[in-house]
Amino acid sequence: MEKPLLTGDGAPPLYRQIYLRLRAAIADGRLKAGDRVPSIRALASELNLARGTIELAYQLLINEGYLMGRGAAGTVVSPLIKSMPVPSESSSAPVPEYSLVHSGEPAQPFQMGLPALDAFPRKLWNRIASNELRNSFSDGAIYPDARGHSSLRRAVARYLGLSRGITCAPEQIFIVAGYRAALDLIGRSLLKPGDSCWMEDPGYFAARDFFQEAGATLVPVPVDSDGMVVEAAVESAPDARFAVVTPTHQSPLCVALSMPRRQALLEWANAKQSWIIEDDYDSEYRYHGRPLPALKSLDVHDRVLYCGTFSKVLLPGLRLAYLVVPEKLVPRFAELADKMQSHCPQLWQVTTARFIEEGHFGRHLKKMRNLYAHRRQLLAQALITRLEHRLVVDNQVGGMHLLARLDPDEDDREIFIRAKGAGLRVQALSRWYVKTPSVHGLLLGFTNVVDKAQASELVERLAQVIECEALPGNCSP
Ligand SMILES: Cc1ncc(COP(=O)(O)O)c(C=O)c1O
């Protein structure tokens, strides 16, 4: 043991240092198969350490097959061992760079798609969760039903019947860990590599990425004020196998798919025996007029796979969403869900079911609808007051973000980058386009803007970001 052992704060335990040194000596051939290592007593005395410390290190090496105890003959390097490189304790190779959409960082101003965190009924939720934890232990202790907990499937079926006019049995409902998990189940059940897939352009990047990675051929379809231009899609890829749509509030433009286009879409799917994936992610939030019926509620030929999520109406951290599949597909989806075994946490499922059944969910939605209408107005007003000369706020019927349109010569991506540096999570509309000539604008989540003063303060920060190109030297975030 040539170098002194390390001591003090942050040093590895002494037994581990001895273990590592012996292991390295065996690995690089200084100690060979069959060589005798010093006795515990001798090494403890040489290093002035307790015998227990050496004993622990030797025991580890014996357990891992590096050393063998030979009784009176002492301890030797295992005769079976060959010298070979061993992993070093601290790898010096840096992890290659990568980027994430969600890295668990705290919410930032203008972040899209987050519900109002301050208005979530925490106490009530915690009370229900604690009760469920106590009462449903044995339920949650076994391998659960991969299709979802029966209580939540029943609650979702009832909710969809009442609120979205969708008639379905609980057996048709699959509880999944978010929209992408729903797509995964659909993809594994129905998608073949090379299948063509209509995607809204602009459209939700996560759905696009999913289908691309699954080997589908993407067909970008333009969107106008009546939603996806179905005629254009039929013209460019009449035999597509899938159409992915956000009919209630198109993501990200928030327009609704008109009734004639809903009918045209359903007719096409029936004629071609294709599938429509209806992403109804935040349909609950509409601020004027009545929503158009869900595509699924008009789906007499059973061509629609309906996706909903609790991310917007409860919390995204729950990772709870649901998928409604046509009856004839239930066995295939159920078998695949069972094979995947990627369940959602049982506790959140039963808590959510109870939250819905006891009527809290309906009340929460009503409260959130009023709150969001107010917060949306606060942000829209602050934007108009301070930035009317630079942008135009769209007055869409619903959703959880505002769209502020910029002049075509304004670079929304540049604003996005500068805003990010200033701690503002606005998004650049042009980044959501693939093929259709892009429109420039900013997407601004308003759900966590709590009052007028905060709306003005945030908009002032945004204004400085937008205007800073005119004030060189004054742009530090
Ligand atoms: C267009 C769209 N669909 C669906 C979702 C729901 O995704 P998840 O259920 O994975 O939270 C989102 C969330 O932001 C979304 O923007």
**What's the overall average pLDDT, rounded?**
93
How many helices in DSSP terms?
Answer: 15
Helix content: 25-40%
Kindly provide the name of the CATH class of the largest domain: Alpha Beta
- Radius of gyration, in angstroms, nearest whole number: 30 Å
- The beta-strand count equals 15
**CATH homolog superfamily of the largest domain:** Type I PLP-dependent aspartate aminotransferase-like (Major domain)
CATH architecture classification of the largest domain = 3-Layer(aba) Sandwich
End-to-end C-alpha gap: 55 Å
Total domains: 3
Hetero ligands:
pyridoxal-5'-phosphate
User: What's the shape?
Assistant: elongated
- How would you classify the helix and strand content by structural class? alpha/beta
**CATH topology term of the largest domain:** Aspartate Aminotransferase, domain 2
Major sheet, described briefly? Answer: 8 strands, mixed
Protein architecture, described:
The chain has helices spanning 14-27, 40-47, 51-63, 122-135, 137-141, 150-164, 179-190, 205-213, 230-236, 259-272, 330-340, 346-357, 360-387, 412-421, 452-467; strands at 36-37, 67-69, 75-77, 173-176, 196-201, 217-224, 227-228, 242-245, 275-279, 304-309, 321-324, 391-393, 401-406, 427-428, 441-445. The strands form three sheets. Strands 4-11-10-9-8-5-6-7 form an eight-stranded mixed β-sheet, sandwiched between helices. It is built from 15 helices and 15 strands. With 477 residues, the chain is α/β, with parallel strands linked by helices. The longest helix has 28 residues, at 360-387. It starts with 13 loop residues before the first helix and ends in a 10-residue tail after the last helix. Helix content is 39%, strand content 13%. Bound molecules: pyridoxal-5'-phosphate (PLP).
